[in-house]
């Protein structure tokens, strides 16, 4: 995590959530980076791991890390994510979330996890967008 990002936790809110409830970005940050939703596509544009929420989440996180690196950031610079999962079943959302959470490690930036009806690519089940500060 950079000096520009401070994760906020509260003893007055449930500790069940596996992320900080807010993040603060110092005005010393040089840039904010808004990453488009990372999708589970390989370099040829094929959707990887059809039917596998965790497998797609791994590819999504690989792609997110690449996009952030191209912008001069890393996962530790992320101040907020939104995780989209094409399912109404909580176990499917959790399968994707566990991969995302584990990839961020100790940097538990605020996140929103959503079950949605559909995503943009054939066989796509997972997408993650992020905002980072560097």
Structure description:
The chain is an alpha+beta fold and 134 residues long. The chain contains 2 helices and 6 strands. The longest helix has 18 residues, at 53-70. It is globular and about 40 Å long. The protein starts with a strand and ends with a strand. The mean pLDDT is 92.
| Share of helical residues | 10-25%
User: Which series of helices and strands comes N to C?
Assistant: EEEHEHEE
Low-pLDDT residue intervals, each spanning 5 or more residues: none
**N- and C-termini, Cα separation:** 9 Å
Secondary structure: number of strands: 6
Q: What's the helix count?
A: 2
Largest sheet: 4 strands, mixed
Name the strands of the widest sheet in spatial order: 3-6-4-5
Q: Indicate the radius of gyration in whole angstroms.
A: 15 Å
Computed structural class: alpha+beta
What is the topological layout?
Layout: E1 5-8, E2 22-25, E3 32-38, H1 53-70, E4 78-85, H2 90-104, E5 111-115, E6 126-133
Parallel strand pairs: 4-5
Antiparallel strand pairs: 1-2, 3-6, 4-6
Helix pairs in contact: 1-2
Brief rundown of the structure:
The protein is an alpha+beta fold and 134 residues long. It is built from two helices and six strands; from the N terminus they run βββαβαββ. It has helices at residues 53-70, 90-104, and strands spanning 5-8, 22-25, 32-38, 78-85, 111-115, 126-133.
């Amino acid at each position: 995590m950079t000096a520009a990002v401070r994760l906020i936790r509260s003893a007055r809110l449930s500790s069940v959530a596996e992320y900080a409830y807010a993040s603060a970005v110092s005005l010393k940050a040089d840039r904010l980076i808004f990453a488009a939703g990372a999708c589970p596509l390989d370099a040829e544009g094929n959707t990887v791991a059809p039917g596998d929420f965790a497998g797609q989440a791994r590819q999504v996180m690989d792609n997110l890390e690449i996009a952030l690196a191209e912008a001069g950031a890393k996962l530790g610079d992320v101040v907020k994510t939104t995780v989209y999962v094409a399912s109404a079943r909580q176990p499917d959302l959790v399968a994707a979330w566990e991969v995302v959470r584990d990839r961020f490690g100790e940097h538990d930036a605020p996140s929103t996890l959503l079950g949605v009806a559909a995503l943009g690519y054939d066989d796509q089940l997972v997408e993650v967008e992020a905002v980072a500060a560097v």
